[in-house]
Design a protein that fits this description.
single chain, alpha/beta, Rossmann fold, five-stranded parallel β-sheet
Length: about 140
Amino acid sequence: MRSPRLIVRESDGMLAGMLADAVRKHSWLLREIREPDACLNLLRRVGPSVLFVRLDRKLLDELTFLSDASRIAPDCPIVSIFDVKMESTWQRTQLAGLFRDLGASAVLFPPVVKNLIEEIAETVLPAIVRRFREADGG
């Protein structure tokens, strides 16, 4: 079985920085990727992974990426962080529903804090590792 990995797709390193302590603590791999195609290619390699995607104002491109990632790696949980402040609960609810329909397992809106990101990683990735081990018969 491949090493557990957190895959982060963002443009500035903020999420990767938030996850650095958890990665060191658990000896996970952290792959920070900026280009959508490179990220999709990495997702094609089967192994226990969680994808963190920070979505920005290029919404159509980001939604296409989200859909493609979900299709390519249906067993990989996707945590979507939409980094644009929404004015109303209704807007956040509608957008979260769309993200979920396209494959996101979780959707976060600002403010995104380090302890929440770490908690998600430390909860979800071990569950994925267990599922891979069970599928391998161990």
